[in-house]
Specification:
The complex is a heterodimer of chains A (482) and B (91).
Chain A lengths: L1 H29 L6 H11 L3 H13 L6 H14 L9 H6 L3 H13 L3 H8 L9 H14 L3 H21 L3 H24 L3 H9 L8 H14 L3 H9 L12 H13 L3 H29 L5 H6 L3 H5 L3 H11 L2 H22 L4 H59 L2 E3 L44 E3 L8
Antiparallel strand pairs in A: 1-2
Helix pairs in contact in A: 1-2, 2-3, 3-4, 6-7, 6-8, 7-8, 8-9, 8-10, 9-10, 10-11, 11-12, 12-13, 12-14, 13-14, 14-15, 14-20, 15-20, 19-20
Chain B lengths: L1 H19 L59 H9 L3
Classes of the chains: A mainly alpha (482), B mainly alpha (91).
Chain lengths: 482, 91
Amino acid sequence: MVNLRILLAALMLFPALSQGSVARAEKIYFQKGISNRNEAVTYELMRSKYYFSATVFAKERLIEDKPIDERFEKSLTTLILKTGTATFMPLSAGILGKHNSQAMSFVLGIKQFNKNRFKSAIKALRSIKRGHKFAPEKYMMMGASQNFLARYSEATSSYKNCMRTAEISSKASSHEKLKRYYDILAESCLIHLARMEYKRNDYKKAVQAFQDIPKTSYRWPSLLLEKAWGNYYLADYNRTLGLLVTYKSPLLRSYFYPEAEVLTALSYYRLCLYDDALKTIEQYHSVYKARSDALKGILVKYKKSHTFFLKMMMQPIEKLEEKNPFIRNLMTQTRKKIKFNLDLANYKKVANEYKYLKKKKQTQFISKLTEAVKRSKDWQTRHLNHYVKKEMFDFLNDVHRFSYEMFNIKLEIMFKKRDLLYKNKTLISDRGRGSRDNLNRAQNEHFYDFRGAFWADELGDYSFGLKSNCEEVKVKKNGGGV
Amino acid sequence: MKISFMIVSLFFLILAARAETPKKSSGGKGNIVYKYKKYETFDLGNLEVKGDIIAPGDLSVQERQRTKMERGLLERKDFDEEVRKDIKNLR
Protein backbone atom coordinates (compact mmCIF):
# COMPACT_ATOMS: atom_id res chain seq x y z
CA MET A 1 0.00 0.00 0.00
CA VAL A 2 2.86 2.35 0.94
CA ASN A 3 4.63 1.49 -2.31
CA LEU A 4 1.49 2.25 -4.27
CA ARG A 5 1.22 5.69 -2.61
CA ILE A 6 4.85 6.49 -3.42
CA LEU A 7 4.28 5.41 -7.01
CA LEU A 8 1.17 7.56 -7.34
CA ALA A 9 2.95 10.56 -5.84
CA ALA A 10 5.88 10.07 -8.20
CA LEU A 11 3.52 9.87 -11.18
CA MET A 12 1.76 13.04 -10.16
CA LEU A 13 5.06 14.81 -9.64
CA PHE A 14 6.53 13.55 -12.92
CA PRO A 15 5.66 16.57 -15.07
CA ALA A 16 6.60 18.98 -12.31
CA LEU A 17 9.95 17.31 -11.67
CA SER A 18 10.79 17.09 -15.32
CA GLN A 19 9.78 20.68 -16.04
CA GLY A 20 13.19 21.97 -14.98
CA SER A 21 15.20 19.75 -17.30
CA VAL A 22 12.94 20.29 -20.30
CA ALA A 23 13.22 24.03 -19.81
CA ARG A 24 16.99 23.66 -19.55
CA ALA A 25 16.99 21.55 -22.73
CA GLU A 26 15.05 24.29 -24.49
CA LYS A 27 17.50 26.92 -23.27
CA ILE A 28 20.48 24.91 -24.56
CA TYR A 29 18.69 24.35 -27.87
CA PHE A 30 18.46 28.09 -28.52
CA GLN A 31 21.84 28.96 -26.98
CA LYS A 32 24.22 30.50 -29.51
CA GLY A 33 27.77 29.30 -30.12
CA ILE A 34 27.37 25.90 -28.46
CA SER A 35 29.35 23.15 -30.20
CA ASN A 36 27.69 19.98 -28.85
CA ARG A 37 24.07 21.22 -28.90
CA ASN A 38 22.40 17.93 -29.89
CA GLU A 39 24.38 15.93 -27.34
CA ALA A 40 23.62 18.37 -24.51
CA VAL A 41 19.89 18.50 -25.33
CA THR A 42 19.82 14.67 -25.41
CA TYR A 43 21.31 14.49 -21.90
CA GLU A 44 18.89 17.07 -20.51
CA LEU A 45 15.83 15.34 -21.96
CA MET A 46 17.03 11.96 -20.70
CA ARG A 47 17.46 13.44 -17.23
CA SER A 48 13.77 14.35 -17.25
CA LYS A 49 12.91 10.89 -18.66
CA TYR A 50 11.70 12.21 -22.00
CA TYR A 51 13.41 9.32 -23.79
CA PHE A 52 11.49 9.40 -27.06
CA SER A 53 12.07 13.15 -27.32
CA ALA A 54 15.76 12.61 -26.58
CA THR A 55 16.12 10.19 -29.50
CA VAL A 56 15.31 13.06 -31.91
CA PHE A 57 18.50 14.87 -30.89
CA ALA A 58 20.53 11.68 -30.45
CA LYS A 59 19.81 10.80 -34.08
CA GLU A 60 20.78 14.31 -35.21
CA ARG A 61 24.02 13.92 -33.25
CA LEU A 62 24.74 10.61 -34.97
CA ILE A 63 24.42 12.27 -38.38
CA GLU A 64 27.25 14.65 -37.40
CA ASP A 65 30.80 13.57 -38.29
CA LYS A 66 32.39 14.37 -34.92
CA PRO A 67 33.35 11.13 -33.07
CA ILE A 68 31.18 10.23 -30.06
CA ASP A 69 32.54 9.78 -26.53
CA GLU A 70 31.92 7.09 -23.90
CA ARG A 71 29.20 9.10 -22.13
CA PHE A 72 27.14 9.46 -25.30
CA GLU A 73 27.69 5.78 -26.10
CA LYS A 74 26.19 4.89 -22.72
CA SER A 75 23.25 7.21 -23.41
CA LEU A 76 22.63 5.47 -26.74
CA THR A 77 22.48 2.09 -24.96
CA THR A 78 20.00 3.51 -22.44
CA LEU A 79 17.87 4.99 -25.21
CA ILE A 80 17.68 1.62 -26.99
CA LEU A 81 16.71 -0.07 -23.73
CA LYS A 82 14.02 2.54 -23.05
CA THR A 83 12.58 3.03 -26.53
CA GLY A 84 13.54 -0.11 -28.50
CA THR A 85 15.75 -0.61 -31.53
CA ALA A 86 12.99 0.45 -33.92
CA THR A 87 13.57 4.13 -33.01
CA PHE A 88 17.02 4.08 -34.62
CA MET A 89 16.11 1.79 -37.52
CA PRO A 90 15.31 4.63 -39.97
CA LEU A 91 18.99 5.71 -39.89
CA SER A 92 21.00 4.48 -42.87
CA ALA A 93 23.62 1.74 -42.54
CA GLY A 94 26.30 4.34 -43.23
CA ILE A 95 25.26 6.50 -40.26
CA LEU A 96 24.77 3.52 -37.93
CA GLY A 97 28.23 2.19 -38.71
CA LYS A 98 30.29 5.36 -38.85
CA HIS A 99 30.89 6.06 -35.12
CA ASN A 100 32.15 2.63 -34.10
CA SER A 101 29.38 2.60 -31.47
CA GLN A 102 28.49 -0.78 -29.97
CA ALA A 103 24.87 0.22 -29.41
CA MET A 104 24.48 1.33 -33.03
CA SER A 105 26.29 -1.80 -34.24
CA PHE A 106 23.56 -3.78 -32.52
CA VAL A 107 20.86 -1.86 -34.44
CA LEU A 108 22.86 -2.26 -37.66
CA GLY A 109 23.20 -6.01 -37.03
CA ILE A 110 19.41 -6.37 -36.74
CA LYS A 111 18.89 -4.21 -39.82
CA GLN A 112 21.30 -6.28 -41.94
CA PHE A 113 19.90 -9.58 -40.62
CA ASN A 114 16.35 -8.56 -41.53
CA LYS A 115 17.57 -7.79 -45.05
CA ASN A 116 19.19 -11.27 -45.28
CA ARG A 117 22.66 -9.71 -45.40
CA PHE A 118 24.10 -12.21 -42.95
CA LYS A 119 27.79 -11.53 -43.59
CA SER A 120 27.29 -7.80 -43.04
CA ALA A 121 25.28 -8.56 -39.90
CA ILE A 122 28.14 -10.68 -38.49
CA LYS A 123 30.64 -7.94 -39.36
CA ALA A 124 28.59 -5.30 -37.53
CA LEU A 125 27.94 -7.48 -34.49
CA ARG A 126 31.61 -8.43 -34.00
CA SER A 127 32.32 -4.95 -32.61
CA ILE A 128 30.04 -5.57 -29.58
CA LYS A 129 32.16 -6.70 -26.63
CA ARG A 130 31.41 -9.78 -24.53
CA GLY A 131 30.60 -7.75 -21.40
CA HIS A 132 28.14 -5.41 -23.18
CA LYS A 133 24.44 -5.40 -22.28
CA PHE A 134 23.56 -6.57 -25.78
CA ALA A 135 26.09 -9.42 -25.81
CA PRO A 136 23.49 -12.25 -25.48
CA GLU A 137 21.47 -10.83 -28.38
CA LYS A 138 24.69 -10.33 -30.36
CA TYR A 139 25.64 -14.00 -30.02
CA MET A 140 22.10 -15.12 -30.81
CA MET A 141 22.02 -13.10 -34.03
CA MET A 142 25.53 -14.19 -34.98
CA GLY A 143 24.55 -17.82 -34.41
CA ALA A 144 21.47 -17.43 -36.60
CA SER A 145 23.47 -15.69 -39.36
CA GLN A 146 26.19 -18.37 -39.29
CA ASN A 147 23.49 -21.05 -39.30
CA PHE A 148 21.93 -19.53 -42.45
CA LEU A 149 25.37 -19.33 -44.05
CA ALA A 150 25.84 -23.06 -43.25
CA ARG A 151 28.83 -22.27 -40.96
CA TYR A 152 27.53 -24.71 -38.38
CA SER A 153 30.52 -25.10 -36.05
CA GLU A 154 30.82 -21.31 -35.70
CA ALA A 155 27.07 -21.12 -35.10
CA THR A 156 27.28 -23.74 -32.34
CA SER A 157 30.00 -21.73 -30.63
CA SER A 158 27.97 -18.49 -30.92
CA TYR A 159 24.85 -20.12 -29.50
CA LYS A 160 26.85 -21.51 -26.56
CA ASN A 161 28.25 -18.02 -25.91
CA CYS A 162 24.71 -16.67 -26.07
CA MET A 163 23.56 -19.12 -23.39
CA ARG A 164 26.51 -18.30 -21.12
CA THR A 165 26.21 -14.51 -21.41
CA ALA A 166 22.41 -14.62 -21.02
CA GLU A 167 22.76 -16.69 -17.82
CA ILE A 168 25.29 -14.21 -16.42
CA SER A 169 23.02 -11.26 -17.29
CA SER A 170 20.03 -13.04 -15.75
CA LYS A 171 21.87 -13.59 -12.49
CA ALA A 172 22.99 -9.97 -12.43
CA SER A 173 19.50 -8.52 -13.03
CA SER A 174 17.51 -7.35 -10.06
CA HIS A 175 14.34 -6.68 -12.01
CA GLU A 176 12.10 -9.75 -12.40
CA LYS A 177 10.99 -8.94 -15.95
CA LEU A 178 14.54 -8.37 -17.15
CA LYS A 179 15.64 -11.62 -15.51
CA ARG A 180 12.87 -13.44 -17.38
CA TYR A 181 13.91 -11.77 -20.64
CA TYR A 182 17.47 -13.10 -20.30
CA ASP A 183 16.19 -16.56 -19.31
CA ILE A 184 14.08 -16.63 -22.46
CA LEU A 185 17.13 -15.57 -24.50
CA ALA A 186 19.19 -18.43 -23.06
CA GLU A 187 16.40 -20.90 -23.83
CA SER A 188 15.99 -19.43 -27.33
CA CYS A 189 19.65 -20.09 -28.07
CA LEU A 190 19.29 -23.69 -26.92
CA ILE A 191 16.21 -24.01 -29.15
CA HIS A 192 18.17 -22.58 -32.08
CA LEU A 193 20.86 -25.19 -31.50
CA ALA A 194 18.21 -27.94 -31.57
CA ARG A 195 16.70 -26.49 -34.75
CA MET A 196 20.13 -26.43 -36.36
CA GLU A 197 20.64 -30.13 -35.59
CA TYR A 198 17.19 -30.80 -37.00
CA LYS A 199 18.05 -28.94 -40.19
CA ARG A 200 21.17 -31.07 -40.53
CA ASN A 201 18.96 -34.18 -40.25
CA ASP A 202 20.43 -35.17 -36.90
CA TYR A 203 16.98 -35.68 -35.37
CA LYS A 204 18.26 -37.63 -32.40
CA LYS A 205 20.45 -34.74 -31.25
CA ALA A 206 17.64 -32.29 -31.94
CA VAL A 207 15.16 -34.25 -29.82
CA GLN A 208 17.74 -34.51 -27.01
CA ALA A 209 18.27 -30.74 -27.10
CA PHE A 210 14.51 -30.10 -27.00
CA GLN A 211 14.35 -32.44 -24.00
CA ASP A 212 16.66 -30.03 -22.12
CA ILE A 213 14.09 -27.22 -22.22
CA PRO A 214 12.33 -27.30 -18.84
CA LYS A 215 8.56 -27.66 -18.74
CA THR A 216 8.37 -24.45 -16.75
CA SER A 217 9.81 -22.58 -19.72
CA TYR A 218 7.64 -19.97 -21.29
CA ARG A 219 8.41 -21.41 -24.72
CA TRP A 220 7.87 -25.08 -23.86
CA PRO A 221 4.29 -25.50 -25.20
CA SER A 222 5.12 -24.26 -28.68
CA LEU A 223 8.17 -26.52 -28.82
CA LEU A 224 6.14 -29.69 -28.46
CA LEU A 225 5.33 -29.48 -32.16
CA GLU A 226 9.00 -29.17 -33.15
CA LYS A 227 9.94 -32.07 -30.89
CA ALA A 228 7.11 -34.08 -32.42
CA TRP A 229 8.53 -33.47 -35.91
CA GLY A 230 11.92 -34.73 -34.70
CA ASN A 231 10.35 -37.93 -33.42
CA TYR A 232 8.36 -38.29 -36.65
CA TYR A 233 11.56 -38.33 -38.69
CA LEU A 234 13.02 -40.85 -36.22
CA ALA A 235 9.98 -42.98 -37.18
CA ASP A 236 8.78 -42.92 -33.57
CA TYR A 237 5.18 -42.20 -34.52
CA ASN A 238 3.82 -43.24 -31.14
CA ARG A 239 5.92 -40.60 -29.35
CA THR A 240 4.89 -38.05 -32.01
CA LEU A 241 1.22 -38.77 -31.33
CA GLY A 242 1.82 -38.64 -27.58
CA LEU A 243 3.48 -35.23 -27.79
CA LEU A 244 0.72 -33.83 -29.97
CA VAL A 245 -2.09 -35.11 -27.76
CA THR A 246 -0.70 -32.77 -25.06
CA TYR A 247 -2.28 -29.86 -26.93
CA LYS A 248 -5.68 -31.36 -26.08
CA SER A 249 -5.10 -30.80 -22.37
CA PRO A 250 -7.19 -28.03 -20.76
CA LEU A 251 -3.99 -26.31 -19.56
CA LEU A 252 -2.85 -25.75 -23.13
CA ARG A 253 -6.21 -24.90 -24.63
CA SER A 254 -5.00 -21.53 -25.88
CA TYR A 255 -2.33 -23.29 -27.98
CA PHE A 256 -3.70 -24.63 -31.22
CA TYR A 257 -1.67 -25.32 -34.28
CA PRO A 258 -3.24 -26.60 -37.52
CA GLU A 259 0.18 -28.09 -38.32
CA ALA A 260 -0.11 -30.34 -35.25
CA GLU A 261 -3.31 -31.85 -36.66
CA VAL A 262 -1.62 -32.58 -39.99
CA LEU A 263 1.31 -34.23 -38.20
CA THR A 264 -1.16 -36.37 -36.20
CA ALA A 265 -2.87 -37.52 -39.42
CA LEU A 266 0.55 -38.18 -41.01
CA SER A 267 1.65 -40.29 -38.04
CA TYR A 268 -1.49 -42.41 -38.24
CA TYR A 269 -0.93 -42.73 -41.96
CA ARG A 270 2.65 -43.95 -41.44
CA LEU A 271 1.32 -46.55 -38.98
CA CYS A 272 -1.19 -47.55 -41.72
CA LEU A 273 -4.05 -46.73 -39.35
CA TYR A 274 -6.02 -45.21 -42.16
CA ASP A 275 -9.34 -44.93 -40.34
CA ASP A 276 -7.71 -42.95 -37.52
CA ALA A 277 -6.03 -40.67 -40.05
CA LEU A 278 -9.32 -40.10 -41.87
CA LYS A 279 -11.04 -39.35 -38.58
CA THR A 280 -8.39 -36.73 -37.75
CA ILE A 281 -8.87 -35.15 -41.19
CA GLU A 282 -12.63 -35.05 -40.71
CA GLN A 283 -12.26 -33.45 -37.26
CA TYR A 284 -9.84 -30.90 -38.67
CA HIS A 285 -12.38 -29.72 -41.21
CA SER A 286 -15.23 -29.56 -38.72
CA VAL A 287 -13.24 -27.76 -35.98
CA TYR A 288 -11.14 -25.38 -38.05
CA LYS A 289 -13.85 -24.36 -40.49
CA ALA A 290 -15.86 -22.80 -37.65
CA ARG A 291 -12.72 -21.05 -36.34
CA SER A 292 -11.73 -19.86 -39.75
CA ASP A 293 -15.23 -18.45 -40.38
CA ALA A 294 -15.28 -16.62 -37.03
CA LEU A 295 -11.89 -15.08 -37.73
CA LYS A 296 -12.77 -14.16 -41.29
CA GLY A 297 -15.80 -12.25 -39.99
CA ILE A 298 -13.56 -9.97 -37.91
CA LEU A 299 -10.73 -9.64 -40.40
CA VAL A 300 -12.92 -8.68 -43.31
CA LYS A 301 -14.84 -6.12 -41.28
CA TYR A 302 -11.85 -4.35 -39.75
CA LYS A 303 -8.96 -5.14 -42.05
CA LYS A 304 -8.41 -1.47 -42.97
CA SER A 305 -8.52 -0.18 -39.41
CA HIS A 306 -5.23 0.98 -37.88
CA THR A 307 -6.42 0.72 -34.30
CA PHE A 308 -9.17 -1.92 -33.97
CA PHE A 309 -6.98 -4.92 -33.23
CA LEU A 310 -4.83 -3.05 -30.74
CA LYS A 311 -7.90 -1.79 -28.90
CA MET A 312 -9.29 -5.30 -28.84
CA MET A 313 -6.05 -6.63 -27.35
CA MET A 314 -6.06 -3.98 -24.64
CA GLN A 315 -9.56 -4.84 -23.46
CA PRO A 316 -9.79 -6.59 -20.08
CA ILE A 317 -10.17 -10.37 -20.21
CA GLU A 318 -13.79 -10.18 -18.93
CA LYS A 319 -14.76 -8.23 -22.04
CA LEU A 320 -12.99 -10.71 -24.27
CA GLU A 321 -14.98 -13.53 -22.69
CA GLU A 322 -18.03 -12.22 -24.57
CA LYS A 323 -16.34 -12.91 -27.91
CA ASN A 324 -16.00 -16.23 -29.65
CA PRO A 325 -13.93 -18.45 -27.27
CA PHE A 326 -11.58 -19.32 -30.07
CA ILE A 327 -10.82 -15.62 -30.82
CA ARG A 328 -10.24 -15.04 -27.12
CA ASN A 329 -7.78 -17.94 -27.02
CA LEU A 330 -5.98 -16.68 -30.10
CA MET A 331 -5.60 -13.29 -28.45
CA THR A 332 -4.31 -14.91 -25.26
CA GLN A 333 -1.70 -16.71 -27.36
CA THR A 334 -0.62 -13.38 -28.92
CA ARG A 335 -0.56 -11.64 -25.54
CA LYS A 336 1.95 -14.19 -24.28
CA LYS A 337 4.43 -13.39 -27.04
CA ILE A 338 7.58 -11.51 -26.01
CA LYS A 339 7.53 -9.28 -29.05
CA PHE A 340 4.00 -8.12 -28.29
CA ASN A 341 4.84 -7.39 -24.66
CA LEU A 342 7.99 -5.43 -25.51
CA ASP A 343 6.18 -3.39 -28.14
CA LEU A 344 3.21 -2.82 -25.86
CA ALA A 345 5.50 -1.49 -23.12
CA ASN A 346 7.10 0.90 -25.64
CA TYR A 347 3.69 1.97 -26.86
CA LYS A 348 2.56 2.83 -23.33
CA LYS A 349 5.75 4.79 -22.71
CA VAL A 350 5.48 6.83 -25.89
CA ALA A 351 1.75 7.50 -25.31
CA ASN A 352 2.55 8.73 -21.80
CA GLU A 353 5.33 11.02 -23.01
CA TYR A 354 3.08 12.44 -25.71
CA LYS A 355 0.38 13.14 -23.13
CA TYR A 356 2.79 15.21 -21.01
CA LEU A 357 4.21 17.08 -23.98
CA LYS A 358 0.74 18.02 -25.20
CA LYS A 359 -0.07 19.55 -21.83
CA LYS A 360 2.92 21.89 -22.06
CA LYS A 361 2.89 25.36 -23.57
CA GLN A 362 3.57 24.78 -27.25
CA THR A 363 6.74 26.79 -27.85
CA GLN A 364 8.80 26.19 -30.99
CA PHE A 365 10.97 23.64 -29.16
CA ILE A 366 8.09 21.80 -27.46
CA SER A 367 6.14 21.72 -30.75
CA LYS A 368 9.12 20.04 -32.43
CA LEU A 369 9.21 17.42 -29.65
CA THR A 370 5.43 16.93 -29.62
CA GLU A 371 5.36 16.37 -33.35
CA ALA A 372 8.26 13.91 -33.29
CA VAL A 373 6.81 11.95 -30.36
CA LYS A 374 3.37 11.94 -32.00
CA ARG A 375 4.95 10.39 -35.10
CA SER A 376 6.58 7.74 -32.89
CA LYS A 377 3.28 7.08 -31.12
CA ASP A 378 1.35 6.76 -34.40
CA TRP A 379 3.98 4.42 -35.76
CA GLN A 380 3.90 2.26 -32.58
CA THR A 381 0.08 2.12 -32.75
CA ARG A 382 0.08 1.00 -36.39
CA HIS A 383 2.94 -1.38 -35.78
CA LEU A 384 1.21 -3.11 -32.86
CA ASN A 385 -2.15 -3.18 -34.63
CA HIS A 386 -0.46 -4.70 -37.67
CA TYR A 387 1.29 -7.28 -35.49
CA VAL A 388 -1.99 -8.54 -34.02
CA LYS A 389 -3.75 -8.46 -37.39
CA LYS A 390 -0.89 -10.37 -39.01
CA GLU A 391 -0.99 -13.04 -36.30
CA MET A 392 -4.66 -13.55 -37.13
CA PHE A 393 -4.11 -13.53 -40.89
CA ASP A 394 -1.25 -16.00 -40.51
CA PHE A 395 -3.51 -18.34 -38.59
CA LEU A 396 -6.21 -18.07 -41.24
CA ASN A 397 -3.69 -18.79 -44.01
CA ASP A 398 -2.32 -21.73 -42.03
CA VAL A 399 -5.80 -23.24 -41.76
CA HIS A 400 -6.16 -23.11 -45.55
CA ARG A 401 -2.63 -24.27 -46.27
CA PHE A 402 -2.89 -27.26 -43.97
CA SER A 403 -6.35 -28.06 -45.26
CA TYR A 404 -4.66 -28.70 -48.61
CA GLU A 405 -2.10 -30.95 -46.89
CA MET A 406 -4.92 -32.89 -45.23
CA PHE A 407 -6.54 -33.36 -48.63
CA ASN A 408 -3.28 -34.82 -49.94
CA ILE A 409 -3.14 -37.34 -47.10
CA LYS A 410 -6.74 -38.31 -47.79
CA LEU A 411 -5.94 -38.88 -51.47
CA GLU A 412 -2.91 -40.97 -50.55
CA ILE A 413 -5.01 -43.13 -48.22
CA MET A 414 -7.59 -43.64 -50.96
CA PHE A 415 -4.82 -44.64 -53.34
CA LYS A 416 -3.40 -47.15 -50.84
CA LYS A 417 -6.83 -48.63 -50.23
CA ARG A 418 -7.47 -48.99 -53.97
CA ASP A 419 -4.06 -50.59 -54.43
CA LEU A 420 -4.84 -53.18 -51.75
CA LEU A 421 -8.12 -53.95 -53.45
CA TYR A 422 -6.42 -54.50 -56.83
CA LYS A 423 -3.86 -56.79 -55.20
CA ASN A 424 -6.68 -58.66 -53.47
CA LYS A 425 -4.99 -57.93 -50.16
CA THR A 426 -5.92 -56.28 -46.89
CA LEU A 427 -4.02 -54.89 -43.91
CA ILE A 428 -3.33 -57.32 -41.13
CA SER A 429 -5.79 -55.74 -38.75
CA ASP A 430 -8.31 -53.00 -39.21
CA ARG A 431 -7.62 -51.52 -35.80
CA GLY A 432 -4.13 -52.07 -34.39
CA ARG A 433 -4.45 -50.87 -30.78
CA GLY A 434 -2.08 -49.99 -28.02
CA SER A 435 0.46 -52.01 -26.13
CA ARG A 436 3.56 -51.15 -24.09
CA ASP A 437 5.51 -53.48 -26.38
CA ASN A 438 5.28 -50.85 -29.11
CA LEU A 439 6.80 -48.13 -26.99
CA ASN A 440 10.24 -46.58 -27.57
CA ARG A 441 11.70 -44.75 -24.64
CA ALA A 442 15.04 -43.00 -24.10
CA GLN A 443 16.65 -42.88 -20.66
CA ASN A 444 15.48 -39.35 -19.96
CA GLU A 445 11.95 -39.88 -21.32
CA HIS A 446 8.98 -40.89 -19.22
CA PHE A 447 5.87 -42.84 -19.92
CA TYR A 448 2.46 -42.48 -18.34
CA ASP A 449 -0.76 -44.36 -18.97
CA PHE A 450 -3.48 -42.05 -20.17
CA ARG A 451 -6.50 -42.63 -17.95
CA GLY A 452 -8.91 -40.07 -19.31
CA ALA A 453 -7.35 -37.05 -17.62
CA PHE A 454 -4.32 -34.84 -18.15
CA TRP A 455 -1.92 -34.28 -15.23
CA ALA A 456 0.31 -31.24 -15.32
CA ASP A 457 3.50 -33.14 -14.43
CA GLU A 458 2.82 -35.71 -17.14
CA LEU A 459 2.26 -33.24 -19.96
CA GLY A 460 4.68 -33.70 -22.83
CA ASP A 461 5.64 -37.22 -21.72
CA TYR A 462 2.78 -39.12 -23.26
CA SER A 463 3.39 -41.76 -25.89
CA PHE A 464 0.95 -43.92 -27.75
CA GLY A 465 1.59 -47.66 -27.92
CA LEU A 466 0.06 -48.38 -31.31
CA LYS A 467 1.25 -51.28 -33.40
CA SER A 468 2.04 -50.63 -37.04
CA ASN A 469 -0.72 -51.98 -39.25
CA CYS A 470 1.29 -51.95 -42.45
CA GLU A 471 1.61 -55.71 -42.98
CA GLU A 472 -0.43 -56.85 -45.99
CA VAL A 473 -2.24 -60.22 -46.12
CA LYS A 474 -4.28 -62.00 -48.79
CA VAL A 475 -8.03 -61.54 -48.59
CA LYS A 476 -10.00 -64.62 -47.52
CA LYS A 477 -12.94 -65.74 -49.59
CA ASN A 478 -15.37 -64.55 -46.92
CA GLY A 479 -13.81 -61.07 -47.05
CA GLY A 480 -11.42 -61.12 -44.04
CA GLY A 481 -7.63 -61.39 -44.01
CA VAL A 482 -5.75 -64.72 -44.03
CA MET B 1 -60.14 3.52 -113.03
CA LYS B 2 -62.24 0.66 -114.31
CA ILE B 3 -60.12 0.33 -117.40
CA SER B 4 -56.87 0.09 -115.44
CA PHE B 5 -58.43 -2.51 -113.07
CA MET B 6 -59.43 -4.62 -116.09
CA ILE B 7 -55.94 -4.37 -117.62
CA VAL B 8 -54.27 -5.53 -114.36
CA SER B 9 -56.78 -8.43 -113.96
CA LEU B 10 -56.15 -9.54 -117.55
CA PHE B 11 -52.39 -9.44 -116.93
CA PHE B 12 -52.72 -11.74 -113.88
CA LEU B 13 -55.00 -14.16 -115.78
CA ILE B 14 -52.43 -14.50 -118.56
CA LEU B 15 -49.69 -15.17 -116.01
CA ALA B 16 -51.82 -17.83 -114.23
CA ALA B 17 -52.60 -19.54 -117.55
CA ARG B 18 -48.86 -19.68 -118.41
CA ALA B 19 -47.98 -21.18 -115.04
CA GLU B 20 -50.45 -24.06 -115.44
CA THR B 21 -49.05 -25.11 -118.86
CA PRO B 22 -46.74 -28.29 -118.30
CA LYS B 23 -43.07 -27.80 -119.17
CA LYS B 24 -41.55 -29.87 -121.88
CA SER B 25 -37.99 -31.27 -121.85
CA SER B 26 -35.45 -29.96 -124.29
CA GLY B 27 -35.88 -33.22 -126.30
CA GLY B 28 -39.62 -32.66 -126.25
CA LYS B 29 -40.33 -36.26 -124.83
CA GLY B 30 -42.64 -35.10 -121.98
CA ASN B 31 -42.37 -36.03 -118.18
CA ILE B 32 -39.34 -38.12 -116.93
CA VAL B 33 -40.28 -41.20 -114.92
CA TYR B 34 -37.62 -42.80 -112.67
CA LYS B 35 -37.85 -46.51 -111.97
CA TYR B 36 -36.00 -48.43 -109.22
CA LYS B 37 -35.10 -52.13 -108.92
CA LYS B 38 -37.80 -53.85 -106.95
CA TYR B 39 -35.41 -56.55 -105.46
CA GLU B 40 -31.65 -56.79 -105.11
CA THR B 41 -29.95 -59.81 -103.52
CA PHE B 42 -26.34 -60.13 -102.22
CA ASP B 43 -24.94 -63.62 -101.60
CA LEU B 44 -22.38 -62.93 -98.87
CA GLY B 45 -21.18 -66.53 -98.79
CA ASN B 46 -19.93 -66.29 -102.36
CA LEU B 47 -18.07 -63.04 -101.79
CA GLU B 48 -14.32 -63.53 -101.92
CA VAL B 49 -11.82 -61.02 -100.51
CA LYS B 50 -8.24 -61.34 -101.68
CA GLY B 51 -5.40 -60.58 -99.18
CA ASP B 52 -3.25 -61.89 -96.23
CA ILE B 53 -4.30 -62.28 -92.59
CA ILE B 54 -1.92 -60.13 -90.54
CA ALA B 55 -3.66 -60.27 -87.09
CA PRO B 56 -1.79 -62.32 -84.36
CA GLY B 57 -3.00 -65.84 -83.78
CA ASP B 58 -3.23 -65.42 -79.97
CA LEU B 59 -3.80 -62.21 -78.00
CA SER B 60 -1.07 -61.27 -75.44
CA VAL B 61 -0.50 -58.18 -73.24
CA GLN B 62 2.92 -57.28 -71.93
CA GLU B 63 2.92 -57.03 -68.15
CA ARG B 64 4.13 -53.79 -66.60
CA GLN B 65 4.41 -52.43 -63.07
CA ARG B 66 1.47 -50.32 -61.93
CA THR B 67 2.45 -46.65 -61.88
CA LYS B 68 2.68 -45.38 -58.34
CA MET B 69 1.47 -41.82 -58.00
CA GLU B 70 3.68 -40.06 -55.47
CA ARG B 71 1.91 -37.20 -53.78
CA GLY B 72 4.13 -34.81 -51.87
CA LEU B 73 3.00 -35.17 -48.28
CA LEU B 74 3.91 -32.45 -45.81
CA GLU B 75 7.61 -32.27 -44.96
CA ARG B 76 9.35 -30.08 -42.41
CA LYS B 77 12.88 -29.48 -43.63
CA ASP B 78 13.80 -26.81 -41.09
CA PHE B 79 12.55 -24.21 -38.64
CA ASP B 80 14.40 -21.28 -40.24
CA GLU B 81 11.28 -19.14 -40.37
CA GLU B 82 10.86 -19.55 -36.61
CA VAL B 83 14.54 -18.59 -36.09
CA ARG B 84 13.91 -15.41 -38.10
CA LYS B 85 10.86 -14.63 -35.97
CA ASP B 86 12.95 -15.01 -32.79
CA ILE B 87 15.41 -12.42 -34.05
CA LYS B 88 12.54 -10.06 -34.86
CA ASN B 89 11.35 -10.54 -31.28
CA LEU B 90 14.52 -8.98 -29.88
CA ARG B 91 14.12 -5.59 -28.22
